[in-house]
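User: Some background: our group keeps a shared notebook of sequences we're curious about, and every so often someone picks one and asks for a predicted structure to add to the entry. Today it's my turn. The entry only has the sequence so far, pasted here. Could you supply the structure so I can complete it?
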Amino acid sequence: MYHFNIFVLAVFLSFNVGWGISCPESLRKIALVTKPSFTDLFSELQKVDPQGKTKLALQSDFGPYIDPKGGGACASSTAFNMLQGLRVMSQQENLNPKPVLEGAFLAIPELLAGRVTNTQMTKLLNYLGKYLPNHSLEISAERSIQSKPSEGEIPLKVWTKFDGKQLETNSNELKMVVFQVHDRDKKLLGRHFVVLKKKLSEDQIVVIDPHNPAKEFTYELTQLQVAEETEPVTRLARPDKVPHKSGWIFTLDTIFSVKLNSK
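Assistant: Of course. Here's the predicted structure to add to the notebook entry:
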C-alpha cells in the first residue's frame, strides 16, 4: 500500500474526506478559458463541499475492498485522483469514484490483493483511459535503484542519481509519486501512492495524499547515503524537520508520468 542527487519521506498517514459528482462552473471556466496548470485544477478538486466532501477519492472509502494483508487502497484511489485531474484537462465533468473503481476492481481483480506493482498500476491507468473520450494516455515510469520490482514486472528506466528532472511536469502531464515506507527498525511496510501537485523548489514538493485529499502535504527532498545502500537514497521529510512520531521513513521508489493527448 505504502507504498533528489537523491531524497526520503517521513510523514503522517491518518486522514479523511470524499467527493462530489458535478463539475462546478468555476472549474469548467478554468478548464475552458484559462487552460490551467495542474496546480490550479487540483486546488479546485480539493475544495470541500457543505457535506465535507472533495471531488477526489478518499482511500478509506475503498479499504474494505482490499485484502487486509494487502495494506489498503492508496494505489487505486490515487489513480482515480489522477483521472479526475485529467478529466478537468479534457473539459469533462467530474466522476464519482465509487462506480469507477468498482469497475476497475472487476476488470483488474489483482488490485484487490493490494501491494499494487508498477505493472499493475500501468494496467490500471490504461484502463481508466476509457473515461477520457477523444483522448489517449501516454504512460511512462522510472524507478530508483533502491526499488525492488516484483518478479515478471515490465522493465522500467532506472535512475541511480536523482537530479530533480524526474519531477518536472510537461504540458498536459501529471505525475504520481510512489514511495517505500519503512518502520523505525527498517522493516519495509509497503509502498504508498500520491499525486504530485506542484514543485515549490528543487528540494520541496506538494502532493495530494488519498488519506486526506483536501489537504496539501509539503515535503523536503533530502539526499542521504545509508550504510546498506551503494547509491544515495532520496527521502522526503517535513520541512520543519520534525520527524513523525511513528518513526516511519519514506524513500522515493517510482515516478509515473501520464500525458494527455488528443486523438
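Suggested note for the entry: The CA atoms of residues 32 and 91 lie 7 Å apart. The two ends are 34 Å apart (CA to CA).
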